[in-house]
Design brief:
Elements lengths: L1 H15 L3 H15 L4 H15 L4 H17 L3 H18 L3 H16 L4 H17 L3 H18 L6 H18 L8 H10 L7 H14 L3 H14 L4 H15 L5
Length: 260
């Protein structure tokens, strides 16, 4: 334990000197010393190590977090383990641009949260997964996840998790998938029926009206009208980046006259 305290002090000195890699190494060694006798202290030190590494060595930051997660699981701290698993997902996404491993990390976080019955945190993970699968053009998976999110949000009944928004996300993924699969424009109204079958109250939402207008503009093969609809909606509900990219892909189908 004495060695652990010395490594811990060295980590603090390196941290104050802004020698981040050395600080990360020292905290990691301290955590290893505390690992068996004081796992809670070791968890904290692994996290300190990861925080020091994060902007300088993403792989070392992830490795330190993995050690913390294993100790959390061994000690029944599943919610804390999930929190750190989400952080690993964020590192893969933001630092390494590795979406596949980010997906695996968020899926592991969802599994850990099953032990805690924490549907709010699970919902946040599912939202990220839905966006990832949409960006990877795996629309079936994205649709399933967004509908799962809509179900959870309906159950939670929280205003900051609007159910209609997630039904719209599923509808937009279905729309672009249909266009990529050469579904005739006059069949696109089936998407509206698909959304209403999931939740008949969707018809009373601004999201339903927006989706309906988009489909009509596609039927008319009118890209100018399509853009106008986007601009009107964006004034009141700004688009997330991933959704705007998806909508612009849809516009390309109209502009390039791909639709029969």
């Amino acid at each position: 334990m004495k060695a652990g305290e010395l490594y811990k002090k060295a980590g603090l000195i390196y941290k104050l000197s802004k020698k981040w890699m050395e600080a990360g190494d020292a905290y990691f060694q301290a955590a290893n010393c505390f690992n068996k006798r004081n796992p809670i202290e070791a968890i904290t030190l692994y996290i300190d190590s990861s925080n020091c590494y994060r902007d300088y060595s993403s792989n070392d930051a992830i490795y330190a977090l993995h050690n913390a997660i294993e100790l959390c699981k061994e000690n029944g701290r599943f919610r804390t383990a999930a929190k750190h698993q989400i952080t690993i997902g964020e590192i893969y996404e933001s630092n390494l641009n590795d979406i596949q491993n980010a997906i695996k990390s968020y899926e592991l976080a969802v599994e850990l949260l099953n032990n805690e019955m924490d549907e709010t945190k699970q919902l946040e993970c599912y939202i990220k997964l839905g966006v990832f699968y949409s960006e990877l053009e795996q629309y079936e998976k994205a649709i399933d996840i967004f509908l799962k999110v809509a179900n959870i949000s309906k159950k939670l009944n929280k205003s900051w998790y609007p159910t209609d928004k997630y039904i719209l996300n599923a509808g937009l993924c279905q729309l672009i998938q249909n266009l990529k699969n050469d579904i005739l424009p006059n069949k696109l109204k089936n998407i509206l029926r698909f959304c209403l079958k999931f939740n008949e109250n969707f018809k009373n939402s601004k999201e339903y009206t927006f989706l309906k207008k988009l489909i009509f503009s596609i039927e008319k093969k009118d890209p100018e009208n399509f853009v106008q609809i986007l601009q009107e909606y964006d004034k009141y509900t700004p688009f997330e980046t991933w959704k705007l990219k998806l909508l612009l892909q849809i516009k390309q189908f109209i502009s390039m006259k791909i639709i029969c």
